[in-house]
Design goal:
Family (chains A, B): Belongs to the acyl-CoA dehydrogenase family.
CATH class of one domain in chain A: Mainly Alpha
CATH topology of one domain in chain A: Butyryl-Coa Dehydrogenase, subunit A, domain 1
Oligomer: homodimer
Structural class of chain A: alpha+beta
Distance between the termini of chain A: 44 Å
Strand content of chain A: 5-15%
Largest sheet of chain A: 5 strands, mixed, barrel
GO molecular function (chains A, B): flavin adenine dinucleotide binding; oxidoreductase activity, acting on the CH-CH group of donors
Helix content of chain A: 55-70%
Enzyme class (chains A, B): oxidoreductase
Pfam family, one (chains A, B): Acyl-CoA_dh_N
Protein name (chains A, B): 3-methylmercaptopropionyl-CoA dehydrogenase
C-alpha cells in the first residue's frame, strides 16, 4: 500500500494554526517562511513516498537480524539511510555551525511526521540520533562537539540513548551501570543496557552511544547518574575511526512490531571497560538526558500521528474498493463499496478527526517551541516555553494513545482481511503499541502533567490555556452556522470539565496523591482531547474565512466537517473522563493488593 | 504464564445472578444444580489448566502449517483434542439422545469461558463443531442426524461453517458457490470458501463441512442459498469412512493472531464435484446458518471475556513482581512493586471491572437461553427468548470490543516487556483482534441491535430491560453505603442515556437510516456498558447481603469494590456515547466520499 504525504494539510496547519510567517520573523529563521516550508515539504514527501515508504512492509517481513554481535538491517535500509543522509535530512533542525540547516521545529515536525508515516522503524534511527545531537549541543564540551556533531548531523554516524537496564526502566534511580575515571580524563564504563533502539546496525560507520552510568562514590538515586559518550569505534585525533570499543550487542529482541528497528541488549566493559567521555558534569546526567527525552517525547507523539495517518490512508483505499452489502439509505441498488455504510464512515471520520486534531496540536506546539527558543522578548520566550512544556505530555500521551484506537479501526475497516498479515493493516496495529510505552509510558507523561505541569504552578498555565479556548468559543459562537455552534458548545463543555479536573488536581496533588494520580492518565486524555478539539475549532474559523473568499471549497468544507465531527463524537468523551477522575479517585485504590 | 480458572467467580455468577437453582427446575435440567455446576467447573478447570492452557504459547510459536493440502496442527494439539473428546467436553450441552450430557447453557458457557481462556486457538475447533451440531439438530434429516451427530458430539469428528467467499463476507447475498442436484438425491458442490476455521487439520478422523451454496435456478440474493453437509471423507452405510470427497484445502492464512487455528481456503469440486447432502429444505440455508451463527456469536462474546481474563491474570502477576519507582503516597520507602502505583491499579481495576461485568452479562443471558428453551410456560419462554436475543449482540459486540481495551492494558502494564513477544502478553493483544470481526463484525451486531432488536418492536424490549435496571437502582438506593449509592446514581444516568438513544433509534431507524446506523456501534457500546454495570449492581446487592451474614469477607468486599469502580469509571462513558449518537447523526455522513 503506497503512502501519500498529507502536504496540503500540513501546510494548512503551518500557515494558519502555527503561523509560520511569524516563525519566519524570529532571528535565525528569516528564510523559513511558507515558501520554504512548502519547498521542503514537497521534497520531503517525494523522498519518503518514493524511497522510504516502500521499505515499510519489507522491514516487517525481514526484520533486522543478529549474528555473532553483528546486526544486519532489512535489505534496502542501508542504501535508503545513505540517501537520507545525503539529502541533508538528518540536519534539518540542527545548527548550521555544525553543518545543519537550522530550520525551525515547525517545519521539522512536519517532515518528521512524513518520515514516520513512511516507515516507523526506519525513522527511529534519525529520531535517536537527533536526541544524541541535542544532548551534545546542550552539554557537551567543545572537544566532544568538534569530534562528534558534524558526523552525526551529516548522517555519517548515528546516535543512541542508553537509559534502560533490566531492573531500571521508568525508574532510573535503579541504574547500576558504572564508570571509573581514568588518569587520562576519560572513563571506563561497565554495565548492561537493554531496549537500545538501533544500538547496533550496519547503516552507518560508527554509532555514538549516550550512556547513563554512576561514577564510583556518586550519591544513590537519580542524583548520582552521569552521562557518557561511548562510541562504538574510538575516534582518532584526525577524525578517522580507531579501535573497536568494548561495547557489544549481545542480542536483539523479538518484538510485536517495529521489527525492522533493532532493539539491542548492549554489554559495556566485558573486556576491560568501554572507553567513555563525560558529557557536562558528573551527576548531572539525568538533567542532560531529559533534554534528549523531551525532544524524543515530542517526536514519539508525532509517531502516533504518523502511524495513524498511514493506517487511515490504507483504510480509506480499502473502503473505496471493497464491495459489500446494500446501503441502508437505499442510495445504491444492490451491493456497494463499503464507504457507503454509515459505520464505515463513522470509523473513517473518527480516524480522520483524531489525526487532524493531534496534528494541529503538534504543529502548534512546535511553533511555540520555536518562539520559546528564538523570540527576542524574554517574556514571550517564557510564555511559549510554558505553553510548549504543557503540550509535550499531551502530544506524546494523547497522540500515541489515539494511535491505538486509530490503527485498531484501520484493521476493523478491513474486516477479515485486516487480520491477514499480507493486507498490511495489522502491521500498524502492532507497530503502534510501543508508542504508549517508550520514552516514558502514558502514565509517566501523565504524572508529569499532574505534577510539574499542573500542580507546581497551581494550575496557572492550564487555566491560561482554558482562557484561550474560551476566546475561540466566542469566535465560533459569533460565526454562526451549525458546525461552528456545535464546536463552540462542545468545547465549552469540555473546557469546563478540564477546569474541574485542574482544580481537583491542584487540590489533591499533594494532600491526597493516590486520588490525584489515579486520575492522571484520564486527565491527560481529557486535556489532549480538549486541545485537539480547540485546534480544530481554530481550523474551522480559518476554513470559514477562506471559504468566504472563495478559496479551495472542497478542502475547507472538509476541514469544517472534520471539526464538526470531532466536536460531536470525540469531545464528549471529556465528560466521562471528568466524572471518573473527580468521583472515582477512591475506588481505584480501594481493592487490597492481595485481592487481585 | 500459567492460567487459573476463575471458578469461584463463575460459581458466584451462576448461583446469584443466573440463579442456577431455578435453571435446575426446568424439565430436563433436574440434575444441573449448583452442586453439578461446581463439580463440572472444577473438573473443567483442572483439565484446561493442566492440558490445554500450557499449549497456548506453543500454538503462537509453532502455528498450524500447510503442505500439499495437509494441515499439521501445533505439536500437542492432536493429543489434547483426543483428551478433550474423551472427557466428553464436546457433548457438554448437546442432547443425551446423541450421546451428549445435556447440561444447560448456564453451565456450558462457564466451561466455554475457561476453555477459551486456556487457549483461544484450540477452543475454536470445538466452537465450530458446536455450530455444526446445532444446525444438524435443528434442520438435519433423521439420516443426517444418525450419520453425523454421534461422532461430532463425541469429538471423533469435527465440524466447520463455510460461509465466506472472496467476494462475500458480511454480504452473503453475494455467495456464488453452487450445488447441482444428482439423481441419487445428493448434490455436487462447487466453489471456493475462505476463512474456514479448522477447515483442514489432523486432530480428527473426519471433518464435516456445512457449506452455503446455490442450487441451480435458485433466486438471487440470500433467499436462494441452501445449506449442505459436505464431509471430508464420505461415510459408508456402516458409519466407517469411505472415499475422500472433492473438498480440498489449498492454503491457510498467515494471521495476526490465533495462529494455531488453521484458517483454510477450501476448494470444492475441482475434480468433478464435492458430494454434498442438503440440510433441511432448499433456499432456507441462511435461516439454518443463523442458528449456527447465533450460537457462535454468543460463544465469540465469551472469547472476548476469556482472552481478557487471561491477559488480566498475566498483568496482575507482573504487577506484583516488577519493582519500579517509589509510590506517590510514600507508603514504601524506595522502589516498590508496580501494583503500588495508582495508574497501574487503575489499569488493573479497569480490566477486572470490564471482565466481571461482561461475565455477569454473559452468564445471565445463558440462563435466559435455558429458560427460553425449557420453561413449561410459553409466555416465560417467550420473555426469556426476547431478553436473550437482545443480549446476544451485546455479549458478542461489547465483550469483544472491551477485550481490545483489556488486552492493550495488559501489554501496557508490562511496559517495555509487554512489547517483547517472549513475555506472552502481546499474544492476547494480537489474538483478540479477530473477535470484533468474525461471526459478524461489531457493526453487524450493532445493525442487528438497531434493526431487529430495537426498531422492530418500537423499543419495547429495550425499555423493559431499562425498567428492570430501574428496580435495581431502587434496591441499591435503599441499601445505603457509598458504593451502592454511587452505582445507583451512575446507573440512573446511564439508563437515561440508554432510553434517549432507544427513542432516537426508534424515531430514526426507518425515517433517517443513515443517522440511526451512524450511531449503531456507539449504541451497542452504550447498551453493553449499561447492562454490564447493571449486573455488577445486582452483584453488589448480593455481596452486601452475604457480607451481612458474615460470608467470605474478602471475596464479597472485592465484588462491591469492583462494582463501585465500574460505576465510577466505566458507566460514565455512556454519556459520551449518548451525546455522539443523538447529536452526531449528521456529521458522520457529511463529508463527501471523494473528500476522504
Amino acid at each position: 500500500m503506497s503512502y501519500k504525504a498529507p502536504v496540503k494539510d500540513l501546510l494548512f496547519n503551518m500557515k494558519h494554526l502555527a503561523n509560520i510567517e511569524a516563525v519566519a520573523q524570529l532571528p535565525g529563521f528569516e528564510d523559513a517562511g511558507l515558501d520554504t516550508a512548502q519547498a521542503v515539504l514537497e521534497e520531503c514527501a517525494k523522498f519518503n513516498e518514493d524511497v522510504i515508504a516502500p521499505l515499510n512492509v519489507a522491514g516487517d517481513l525481514q526484520p533486522s537480524s543478529w549474528k555473532d554481535g553483528v546486526v544486519t538491517t532489512t535489505p534496502g535500509f542501508k542504501e535508503a539511510f545513505k540517501q537520507y543522509a545525503e539529502g541533508g535530512w538528518q540536519g534539518l533542525q540542527h545548527a548550521p555551525e555544525f553543518g545543519g540547516q537550522g530550520l525551525p521545529k515547525t517545519i521539522g515536525a512536519a517532515c518528521q511526521e512524513i518520515l514516520n508515516s513512511a516507515n516507523l522503524s526506519f525513522a527511529l534511527c534519525p529520531l535517536l540520533t537527533d536526541g544524541a545531537i541535542e544532548a551534545l549541543v546542550t552539554a557537551g564540551s567543545d572537544e566532544l562537539k568538534a569530534t562528534y556533531l558534524d558526523k552525526l548531523i551529516s548522517g555519517q554516524w548515528t546516535g543512541t540513548m542508553n537509559l534502560t537496564e533490566p531492573q531500571a526502566g521508568s525508574d532510573l534511580a535503579l541504574v547500576r551501570s558504572r564508570a571509573e575515571p581514568q588518569p587520562d580524563g576519560c572513563y571506563k564504563v561497565f554495565g548492561t543496557k537493554i531496549f537500545i533502539t538501533y544500538g547496533e546496525h550496519d547503516m552507518a560507520e560508527n554509532i555514538i552511544h549516550l550512556v547513563l552510568a554512576r561514577v564510583q562514590g556518586a550519591p544513590e538515586g537519580v542524583k548520582g547518574i552521569s552521562l557518557f559518550v561511548v562510541p562504538k569505534f574510538l575516534v582518532n585525533a584526525d577524525g578517522s575511526l580507531g579501535a573497536r570499543n568494548d561495547a557489544h550487542c549481545v542480542s536483539i529482541e523479538h518484538k510485536l512490531g517495529i521489527k525492522a528497528s533493532p532493539t539491542a541488549v548492549l554489554q559495556f566493559g566485558d573486556n576491560g571497560g568501554a572507553t567513555g567521555y563525560l558529557v557536562g558534569e558528573e551527576n548531572r546526567g539525568l538533567e542532560y538526558m531529559f533534554i534528549m527525552m523531551n525532544a524524543a517525547r515530542y517526536a514519539v507523539g508525532l509517531q502516533g500521528i504518523s502511524v495513524s495517518e498511514r493506517s487511515y490512508q490504507q483504510a480509506v483505499a480499502y473502503a473505496r474498493e471493497r464491495v459489500q452489502s446494500r446501503p441502508v439509505d437505499g442510495s445504491v441498488k444492490g451491493s456497494a463499496t463499503i464507504i457507503h455504510h454509515p459505520d464505515v464512515r463513522r470509523m473513517l471520520m473518527t480516524m480522520r478527526a483524531l489525526i487532524e486534531g493531534t496534528r494541529a496540536t503538534a504543529i502548534t506546539a512546535a511553533a511555540a517551541y520555536d518562539a520559546a527558543h528564538k523570540h527576542p522578548d524574554a517574556q514571550v520566550r517564557q510564555d511559549n516555553q510554558t505553553f510548549y512544556e504543557f503540550m509535550v505530555p499531551l502530544v506524546k500521551g494523547y497522540s500515541t494513545e489515539i494511535s491505538q484506537e486509530v490503527t485498531a479501526l484501520g484493521v476493523q475497516v478491513h474486516g477479515g482481511m485486516g487480520f491477514i498479515e499480507e493486507t498490511g493493516s495489522a502491521q500498524h496495529y502492532r507497530d503502534c503499541k510501543i508508542l504508549t510505552i517508550y520514552e516514558g509510558t502514558t502514565a509517566i507523561q501523565a504524572n508529569d502533567l499532574v505534577g510539574r505541569k499542573t500542580g507546581r504552578d497551581g494550575g496557572a498555565v492550564a487555566k491560561a490555556i482554558a482562557a484561550q479556548i474560551e476566546q475561540t468559543e466566542a469566535q465560533l459562537s459569533a460565526l454562526g452556522g451549525e458546525p461552528a455552534q456545535a464546536v463552540a458548545r462542545e468545547l465549552a463543555l469540555a473546557r469546563q470539565a478540564f477546569l474541574d479536573v485542574v482544580d481537583y488536581m491542584v487540590a489533591n496533588g499533594r494532600e491526597n496523591p493516590n486520588a490525584a494520580y489515579a486520575g492522571s492518565v484520564p486527565y491527560l486524555m481529557l486535556a489532549g482531547n480538549l486541545v485537539a478539539g480547540w485546534n480544530l475549532g481554530r481550523a474551522l474559523l480559518v476554513a470559514s474565512a477562506q471559504l468566504s473568499q472563495g478559496e479551495d471549497k472542497a478542502f475547507y468544507e472538509a476541514k469544517i466537517t472534520t471539526a464538526h465531527f470531532y466536536a460531536e463524537h470525540i469531545l464528549p468523551r471529556t465528560a466521562a473522563l471528568r466524572s471518573a477522575i473527580v468521583n472515582g479517585g477512591h475506588s481505584v485504590m480501594e481493592l487490597p493488593m492481595d485481592a487481585f
